[in-house]
Amino acid sequence: MHLTHDLELFPDHRVTQLLFKDVKNAAELRQCAMKGEINGALINPAMLVNPFQVLVAANKAVHLQKIGKMKTRSLYSEIIFNLSPTNNISEAFKRFGISDGDESVMVVLVHNKDELQPLSDIIARVNGQQVAVEDVSSLSNNTKIQKLYKVTPQEEKCGTLLDAVVCRMATKDVI
């Protein structure tokens, strides 16, 4: 049900993703995250194309943390910020963070390889149904994603929506 990846560039770190639908306590989860009671990023899956997109954002966040160049206050807020195609932090939280009325949530955890991440704690906090992370596309809103990332129909003919999204995430600091 959850998906865990080792970060190739940071072999001592792992990223674990959990996906929930029919969530009834999004407001409570959001408050807990803001207080620092949940050690993870809470992401709105409607803005996600694929779990790889989250992995790219997490990898970049860990890299920026290691070199001391994060633009936000925590690793988990940096993951949410890195999903955005713009450099506006508050806009990133509005678009990619969860809102009080959301019915689905992606939880992203970054932990050391030898550390057992207490998934049961996170699972117990979420009042919703855990589903396979690979099913995130069933919760996606492709129209909103295309509009936010300014993906043209011609671009989708030569590549996928995921390609376009990851490209914009990776190049937002350069352009």
Q: Mind explaining what this structure looks like?
A:
The structure is a single chain. Helix content is 43%, strand content 18%. It contains 8 helices and 5 strands, in the order E-E-H-E-H-H-H-E-H-E-H-H-H. Strands 1, 2, 3, 4 and 5 form a 5-stranded antiparallel sheet that branches. Helix 3 packs across helix 4 and helix 6 runs parallel beside helix 8. 34% of the residues are buried. The mean pLDDT is 94.
Output the keywords.
alpha+beta; five-stranded antiparallel β-sheet; 5 strands
The amount of beta strand, in percent, is: 15-25%
**H/E topology pattern:** EEHEHHHEHEHHH
Number of helices: 8
Q: Using only CA atoms, what is the Rg?
A: 15 Å
Low confidence ranges: none
Q: Output mean pLDDT.
A: 94
Task: State the shape.
Answer: globular
Roughly how many Å apart are the termini?
Answer: 37 Å
Q: Which structural class matches the secondary elements?
A: alpha+beta
Largest sheet: 5 strands, antiparallel
Helix content: 40-55%
How many DSSP-defined strands? 5
Quaternary structure of the protein: single chain
Short description:
By secondary structure, this protein is an alpha+beta fold. It is built from 8 helices and 5 strands.
Give the topology, please.
Blueprint: E1 3-7, E2 10-21, H1 26-35, E3 41-43, H2 51-66, H3 75-83, H4 89-96, E4 104-112, H5 119-125, E5 129-131, H6 142-149, H7 153-158, H8 161-171
Antiparallel strand pairs: 1-2, 2-4, 2-5, 3-4
Helix pairs in contact: 2-3, 2-8, 3-4, 6-8
